[in-house]
Inverse folding.
């Protein structure tokens, strides 16, 4: 398959991004393995917080988490105009949310931690996205 991509490139052609993502899926996972290994136990002994994006979220409380380990998801960056807090880790695994935010999240987030089944990663995000291997929600457990 890599020869096909090379041949297309030589002739000034390219594969649609979704097809290219599907082809390079395994390579992306392998490339990110070392990153994930380096994270293991990096925060051992520290407390951490998972920030929900629901209506009960009080933006003023986020500043109190400034020096804490935090994980947030999806459109949390919409709160950034009202707080100095930024999450330690940003995640996304919802394909519909990814489709909506993938073109603009790079303006707000340094690293995106995404499920490996998310396709269509914009080129400007390629070096900012760290994928984890994850079964697509529609995958059958029998296929494991």
């Amino acid at each position: 398959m890599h020869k096909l991509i090379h041949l297309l490139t030589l002739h000034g052609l390219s594969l649609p991004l979704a097809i290219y993502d599907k082809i390079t899926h395994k390579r992306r996972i392998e490339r990110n393995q070392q990153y994930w290994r380096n994270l293991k136990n990096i925060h051992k002994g520290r407390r951490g917080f998972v920030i929900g994006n629901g209506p009960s979220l009080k933006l003023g409380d986020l500043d109190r988490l400034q020096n804490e380990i935090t994980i947030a998801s999806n459109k949390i960056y919409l709160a950034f105009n009202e707080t100095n807090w930024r999450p330690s880790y940003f995640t996304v695994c919802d394909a519909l949310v990814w489709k909506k935010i993938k073109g603009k999240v790079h303006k707000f987030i340094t690293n995106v931690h995404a499920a490996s089944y998310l396709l269509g990663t914009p080129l400007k995000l390629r070096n900012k996205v760290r994928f984890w291997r994850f079964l697509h929600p529609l995958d059958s457990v029998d296929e494991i």
In short: The longest strand covers residues 69-73.
